[in-house]
Amino acid sequence: MTPRLTLSQLTKRYGDVHALTDVSLAVAPGERVALLGHNGAGKSTLMKIVLGLIGFDGGTVSVEGAAPGSTAARRMTAYLPENAAFHPALTGRELVCQYLRLRGQPGAQAGALLDRVGLAHAADRRIGTYSKGMRQRVGLAQALIGQPALMVLDEPTSGLDPVSRREFYALIDDLAHAGASVLLSSHALTEVEARTDRLVILSRGRIVAAGTLGDLRARAGLPLSATVTPAPGAIAAVRAALPPDADWRDGQARLALPVTTKMGFLSRVAALGGQVADVEIAPPSLEDIYTHFSHATPPDAAEPRQAEAA
Amino acid sequence: MSRILTIAGTEFRIARRNRWVTVSALMMMIFALVLTAAGSAPSGALAADRLSVVVASLTSLAVYVVPLIALLLSFDAIAGEVERGTLPLLLTYPVSRAEALAGKLLAHLGVLALALLAGYGLAAVVAILGDRAALAGLPALWRLGWSSILLGITFLGAGYALSSLAGRPSGAAGLAIALWVVLVVLYDLGLLAVVVADDGGALTTQALPVALLANPADAFRLFNLSASQATAAASGLGAAAKTVSGVAALGSILIWPVLAFGLALASFRRLQP
Fold first, then answer.
1. Are A149 and A254 in the same domain?
2. For residue A10, which of A26, A18, A22 has the smallest C-alpha distance?
């Protein structure tokens, strides 16, 4: 399938600062891609370039063959800015109505859109009275206008409570099933884990890792974490059976296990029989993987990074 | 066009909710009433109809108030969107910057036109009710009306340009006030000082007319006063004004709105969201 959004060796500088270096990325129709990175890693810059709001210094960007910011690209792209505060004097309905008309759609659809993001009850209240989460929903409502082919969502769930977040990702799922490509950025790693097809980790303007969570987990090669709880009175026996580097706290042993030793470890624990009350094995969390990659120096980036630090 | 009207509709609604429509209309009506009452005294002596005299007073008032209202309406137009974070969003819609700016201009011009209609209309009604002969002053009032609109466009454009330039509402407000003080107040004081010091020399006869035409507020005043003989005395620069033809003043007040909108658009296009 031809990608809907293609970035190829994209480079953007602000004076001496390399905001983006050699960023290549493709998003297929129906695919949900999460951009992860610290503040200043280049996520918002990348999004603004895709939207045609700012120019770039090298590489190519194509939105279904069109240049970013061209009328054709703007027609098929929806954007949810980070922390947008809409004019407080307007009601949600009036605002969405305006955005509908700007896309050439009948303003009467505003009610249905607001209902879709759970704001039907507040449609005729002024935005000045809305909470941050409600304003974020208004932003989402305008991003849904006209079934966009490409959705660019900058920190879309900031300010939303957990229930709203789940509803938000359900909406994104629907849109992706209908063929929309979604590029979103997030700080909340645990939520993008389950809800996106691919993760792209940006660090200092470079892509340091990209792939599914499974890919990244395998590539990072981070240890699993195991917790063993001995049965009452069996602590000494369990301690003797476990590796000496186990960290004993509150009557439980915690171990970092290389992935390859998992089965051997499990059979050793199983051999202890009733002396073990419980055993838990957790894969490395997304936070661990994220930290691993975002602190890793890309092999060809050592020079400029040192130059920047100096 | 429908996109321009959509943006204009939203902006007008915001201006109405922010009480701009009410406040500016009330302000114009109060000024008009005061001037109509005050302007009725000398009319007999000057042998002009009552409305023409009121128009002269309204002209002097409009030079101050129309730029002020226009700048107040426009200073937040771009900087406010930058601050709220909605400008990048608007620019990702299939709307050109020229369309967005034209929409805002249309709405703010509507607010200004309503205020002028309320103020000038009230002045006309009061003058004509008091003296049927005042009907003769209607052409002068009509001229004042459309030239006020042109003056308004000029200062709205200037306000948008400053708003794009400043990028923050507080900065834009400061620049707008500075522009108003310089063009409407200090500029004339400076010219007066030059006229007094020069005492009828080359500066007064040659440079002064150009300087007056270069300032849209002065050109507006000259245009309305040159057309109304009864009122030359109403301007501090009345004597000097005689050296400027009404046609040249008309040219200036026609060119300035185009220049100002062009300036606003250029400034807006340079803004990186």
1. no
2. A22
